[in-house]
Design a protein that fits this description.
Elements (H helix, E strand, L loop, with lengths): L3 E3 L2 E3 L1 H9 L6 H35 L11 H15 L8 H21 L7 H24 L2 H12 L7 H18 L3 H7 L3 H6 L4 H23 L5 H13 L3 H25 L8 H18 L6
Antiparallel strand pairs: 1-2
Helix pairs in contact: 1-2, 2-7, 2-10, 2-11, 2-12, 3-4, 3-5, 3-6, 3-10, 4-5, 4-10, 7-10, 8-12, 11-12, 11-13, 12-13
């Protein structure tokens, strides 16, 4: 993942270690590795881990095996907020992306859950999926309409919308860090709560769990992770959907292991997809959002064919 062709030779892991331990600001290879490759690698790791854990939490909270930040409309809400920020002129720097994404993800989550709760049975897996799909379609249409009349915003937004970790810098990573930290602190230690919640709300209450509080805390953490991942890499598809199912095949249903595994596998998937995208069509590159869909779709089909997807 660290290999990079620069000038007459390819830079590899040994060059990266040398740049870390004996950085020379006058060496073009060192500057390239530390200013371009390292932030891109870290952004991929963070975005993948965040989206993987967020997908696990959403599937558990909604008891819906198809739940993920994309299907439930959370990514679309974050993207619409960024479009509004660009069109209004309020969003002027990459470091502001995370705050607009956080606001949009929070609004999307609230709206989708509110719409799904209006049904006679409350927020059920099917109603959440339908409400999420409807909200995502609406948000995407509104965003597209705004971009059509604002070509300057379109030029900035179109690359980010596909999903990419190229061009990220340490300032953007620093702006995402607080939101990311809150998200992981609220979700990763909650595996035991989610295991209890998976037994059903009545059983969880009987075991002394405050169901509404657990749902609120973990949902806030998932929204923070969605916002951080989307701000870094754009609305990357399939990571939050496929990774939890693949991890459950290895770890079983224990949510503590599933969340940790989803963080690791999600990070590996995004970095691996980014690496493949850089070398598959030289001298150009394929954005990571496209590659995760290309990789994730066959994996999801294989999981469905083996009937191992948790119902």
């Amino acid at each position: 993942a660290l290999s990079l062709t620069t000038g007459p030779r390819a830079l590899g892991l040994s060059d990266f270690l040398t740049a870390l331990t004996a950085y020379d600001p006058h060496d073009p290879a060192h500057v390239t590795l530390m200013a371009i490759r390292l932030p891109r690698l870290v952004a991929g790791l963070i975005a993948g881990a965040a989206l993987g854990v967020a997908g696990t939490v959403m599937q558990t909270l909604t008891r819906n095996p198809l739940a993920d930040p994309g299907i439930l409309g959370v990514n679309a809400g974050a993207a619409l907020a960024i479009v509004l920020g660009l069109a209004s002129g309020l969003l002027t720097a990459q470091t502001q992306y995370v705050w607009f994404a956080l606001a949009g993800a929070a609004v999307a989550t609230t709206v989708v859950y509110g719409i799904a709760s209006m049904g006679p049975g409350g927020a059920q897996p099917v109603t959440l999926t339908i409400a999420g799909a409807a909200f995502a379609a609406t948000a995407t249409s509104l965003g597209a309409g705004l971009l059509v009349v604002d070509l300057a915003a379109l030029d900035v937004f179109r690359v980010w919308q596909v999903g990419t970790v190229a061009g990220r810098d340490l300032a953007l990573l620093g702006s995402v860090a607080p939101v990311l930290l809150v998200g992981f602190l609220l979700t990763l230690p909650a595996g035991g709560w989610l295991n209890t919640l998976g037994l059903g709300d009545d059983m969880a209450r009987g075991l002394g769990q405050r169901v509404w509080l657990v749902r609120l805390v973990v949902a806030v953490g998932a929204v923070c992770l969605c916002a951080a991942g989307t701000a870094l890499a754009g609305p990357v598809a399939f990571v939050g959907l496929v990774v939890p199912h693949a991890v459950r095949l290895l770890t079983g249903p224990d949510e503590r292991r599933v969340m940790l595994g989803s963080a690791l596998f999600g990070a590996a998937l995004v970095v691996g997809a980014d690496t493949i995208g850089r070398v598959v069509l030289p001298p150009t590159e394929v954005q990571v959002g496209i590659m995760t869909a290309v990789i994730g779709a066959p994996v999801l089909i294989a999981l469905v064919r083996t009937r191992r997807v948790t119902a």
